[in-house]
Amino acid sequence: MGKTAPSVVLDGFSYLECPRWHDGRLWVSDFYTERVVAIDERGRSEVVAEVPGQPSGLGFLPDGRLLVVSMRDHRLLVRDESGRLDQHADLSDVVSGVLNDMVVDERGGAWVGNFGFDLMGGAPLRYTTLTRVDPDGTVSVAAEDLGFPNGMVILPGGVLVVAETFAGRLTAFDIGETGELSGRRVWAQFGETPRTEDVGEAVAALEVAPDGICADAEGAIWVADAVHNRVLRVGEGGRILDEIDAGTGVFACMLGGDDGRTLYLCAAPSFAEHERRPVREAQLLAVDVDVPHAGLP
């Protein structure tokens, strides 16, 4: 593919995360304005949900309703056709930390990550769990000992891949017929996993800090590298197939557009809450790529 620099689709946001292409628009969470926004290919935007608990992961049920992670009160919300939000599931009994990204499967089952420790408050780094929410709202622990489970994709054939940001790797699981996970394995490892509880030391040691991810039709995964201002196209086993310099921090990515070949990037100068909350410096960027979207989200 060409090395065209990403262009700005829209700016003036606080901190964008968890982009999803759905029904002709890109749906994305803006953390510190506590809004979910849908943006069409011409850059026209609409606020589709206001989430006082801070929105993060997004996904869609088989009937088209939107699921939204409410980070700070440990809930998963569902938006009906009128735009009203109701509780779909309460994760408080299994998760103590701030919730994070999510992927929703074709049945309407959801996998939700969490921080595992007070990242913004300077706490020591801790590994944590991945939570499964069944279509009926039942909550259970799906996997343990994950190094900041972040972006996720479901590849064709029912393979869940989780970005472990502070472990510097992508980890895969096979999804069973009833949603159980098995066959845990490293899908891609980027350098050595940091062996420290100090977040600053870990960040400095990471060759790649995988944040948001999305998959393409050749089985590769685009990875937003949260500490090196870039997105990487990665093959199973960890080979880097392509790299795009975003020119700024990039924390999530999603393939969309009518042909699935527009790579959207959630960009901001940094990720620290105290730096992002008071300003509106985040942008949605886009760049054309050759291989279209596949898998979920």
From TrEMBL:
Pfam families: SGL. InterPro entries: 6-blade_b-propeller_TolB-like (IPR011042), SGL (IPR013658), SMP-30/CGR1_Lactonase (IPR051262). GO terms for molecular function: hydrolase activity. Gene3D superfamilies: TolB, C-terminal domain. Keywords: Hydrolase. The keyword Chloroplast does not apply. The keyword Cell division does not apply. Residues 17-268 form the SMP-30/Gluconolactonase/LRE-like region domain. PANTHER family: LACTONASE DRP35, LIPOPROTEIN-RELATED. Belongs to the SMP-30/CGR1 family. This is SMP-30/gluconolactonase/LRE family protein.
